[in-house]
Amino acid sequence: MTGLRKGVNRRKVMWAFLDINLLLLMCFMLLYSYVSSTVSSPLYSSSCRLQGQFHLNGMHKAGDVVLGGLFGIHFFSVFPDLSFTSEPQQPTCHGFDVLGFRQAQTMAFAIDEINRNSNLLPNVTLGYSLYDNCIKLGIGFRAALSLVSGQEEQFILDKNCVGTPPVLGIVGDSISTSSIAISSVLGLYRVPMVSYFATCSCLSDRQKFPSFFRTIPSDAFQVVRQNVTGLQWMASEAAIAGIVFHTPHLMPYLGGTLGIGIRRGEIAGLREFLSRIRPDLHHNNVYGNSMVKQFWEYTFQCRFAPLPAGWVEAGGALCTGQEDLENVETEFLDISNLRPEYNVYKAVYALAYALDEMLQCEPGRGPFSGHSCATLQRLEPWQLMYYMEKVNFTTPFGDQVSFDENGDALPIYDIMNWLRLPDGRTRLQNVGEVKRLAFKGEELTIDEDKIFWNFESKKPPQSVCSESCPPGTRMARKKGEPVCCFDCIPCSEGKISNKTDSMECTSCPEDLWSSPQRDYCVPKKTEFLSYHEPLGICLTATSLLGTFICAVVLVIFIYHHSTPIVRANNSELSFLLLVSLKLCFLCSLLFIGRPRLWTCQLRHAAFGISFVLCVSCILVKTMVVLAVFKASKPGGGASLKWFGAVQQRGTVIVLTSLQASICTAWLVSSSPSPHKNTQYHNDKIVYECVVGSTVGFAVLLGYIGLLAILSFLIAFIARNLPDSFNEAKLITFSMLIFCAVWVAFVPTYISSPGKYADAVEVFAILASSFGLLVSLFGPKCYIILLRPERNTKKAIMGRGIQS
Description:
- Helices cover 41% and strands 15% of the residues.
- By secondary structure, the protein is an alpha/beta fold.
- Among the domains are: 1-40; 462-523, Ribbon (Tumor Necrosis Factor Receptor, subunit A, domain 2); 534-799, Rhodopsin 7-helix transmembrane proteins (Rhopdopsin 7-helix transmembrane proteins, Up-down Bundle), CATH 1.20.1070.
- A 7-stranded mixed β-sheet has the order 8-7-6-2-5-1-11, sandwiched between helices. A 5-stranded mixed β-sheet has the order 9-10-16-17-18.
């Protein structure tokens, strides 16, 4: 038994090896004849009457350029036994396929439509040679090689023809296996082959199949890449149209199945064309139309003469050729569901557009060697290949047709749903589409109201593993579990999801932030030193209080301007000092409120000039104290001429003008400006004034500090002068406070973010201003208001203004 099994297996291997070798030998013989014919005459063979070796079912029409076609007109074939003692008989095809024949007629219709179109291929007539592959690789291979080698079966194209036009391209095959075999050979000679039904993703390999194109999407695109869960069955393009879904007893289980189907299209005028088909050998210049006769016999259950023996006796009818297709029930004329036919239509037009573009080439500007062009008299398939790769047009149905670098068309599918009718019948209905747009990604459209759900509730099923993720969360698959099992992860701060079952959370724009529920974006909170918050209110009140106190002191000094204590302390500089302190208090208000361009530019300029004016007055007062002291000594009177009223005013103006110049240069070169800062807080926008030029700001502060230190040093030197000049002690103390405040300000300001930097600067302005106001004017107001007996010349000359 084991020996018998081995013998059978060995015999099978031998026969398979023999079949392969015979097929290869046949291929090389045909290729040799093809190469020989193209070398001797690249366009036409020497005779209109072609001597062929294969008897194939076909249909042909004359033209300046001929396109080939391979279609499955029969379901199966029978090959005779090979005795190797005589010439083998030709295979016979059986089981007529009406839909396959309709696909072939669609190609004939498309070519006829192109020939009537004056805008496409003008002055060029397309012809065709269509063959039946009988759903058999060997027969399809024979037909394809016959087309490209010019070795078709004998037929007469036209009584006036002078040669046989070449087949520049083939529409077909409908089967991936056949397309793989045929295209691998045709690719050697760059003969374009455009399939309308072969979906194997392997055919996208441009190295193996360089001349293969297709108008049906590759299987690689069928994997519907969208997360559609909770469905009972999901089917591929091949399965959704399979016969299993037509089985009534399986519909309780398979009803409601969702799957993808080949794109359905509409072809205007096709039904009228199909209804005019007649089995007349000379109808519409179509020859060798054995397929039409077979279709007629199949449809009307009749036979043309000569009749087989016993046909009439058995009740068979004789075909007259005048039968009316409209009076018989046939799906041949039903064009409501054109799917493969629509792909055939697009394939023919793709070849036509490529040919039209090729013939529009201007001599000297062509894409071939020496900038040459292809001509109608010397057309080569490889020349057409160049233009096939650049095809891009839109069908009357509105679909864009082009090929990518692999020869694949832009994928587009109809989403189909098997509907179970109450009477037990089934119907396939369109519920949406999925397509890939050029440079725009993929687009999925589903009409959920049309979907039939195979459940008692007639509603979409819920996932048995996880509930839907609400807005504000995203789906995260559970590792090692089915795709319907997932966790709902809340979106992180600053991200949202506003749909159910979102795969990702999207970031909010820069000015927006996520809501607490993470389902929509809200404007970010804004932060600045406001007049309405407690800190801003306190600083504003303090500033206004200091301004009011300055005004009160100024009124007191004006009212008592003739008293000795006012006159003894240089009343003019005291008044100017009070005005400058008042400005210092007021300039702090520019740091409060929402930053704007004018406030950002004015705040530091006003602050710098006000404080320089203030410190300049103090510096001049201190210098006057030293000058008066020297003048009281013998021979020191000459020093007073340098510190008269004019010199005092001039010194204050010059020192203040220098600060004004610094501020002007800063504002012109790199002006401070408002800025929205999102770096401090993710959920807040901090409005702040950027200083523009750090150098400018540093020079402004440094100049104030230089004058303050100078005033402090001079006042410190004069602190031990006689009592009548002891205002120097007050100046020394006030400048000590001033310097301490601003030394502490710098590091605090640098380390404080946002509005707190403004608050620190306002606090420094107010603290130093109050320090100067209280230190310099507090003791004097005390004597003027509470100790008037000491506000006399004798008291001042005797004991000074010590309290």
